[in-house]
Specification:
With about 70 residues, this protein is mostly helical. It is about 45% helix and about 0% strand. The radius of gyration is 19 Å and the shape is flat. The chain starts with 12 loop residues before the first helix and ends with a helix.
């Protein structure tokens, strides 16, 4: 078995199609996504955010920011 490390931009058309190809061929190709976090990391981030909230370290955005900046 040979291991290759390939770097590509998944936001381009080629990158999207290449990623789809790899995911469709999981039987033959193992895709390791380092951006996926484990369940423990996920809950650690939530706990950290809750602690920051309790300390008052948060920002409140108004309706104009949501509409104009975020476009939501």
């Amino acid at each position: 078995m040979t291991t290759y490390k390939i770097t590509f931009n998944e936001r381009t058309n080629f990158g999207k199609n290449f990623l789809i190809y790899l995911q469709e061929n999981k039987k033959y190709i193992k895709v390791n996504d380092p951006t996926k976090m484990t369940e423990e990391e996920f809950y650690a981030k939530i706990k950290k955010a809750e602690e920051q909230y309790e300390r008052g370290e948060y920002t409140v955005y108004d309706e104009d920011f949501r509409k104009n900046v975020l476009g939501l």
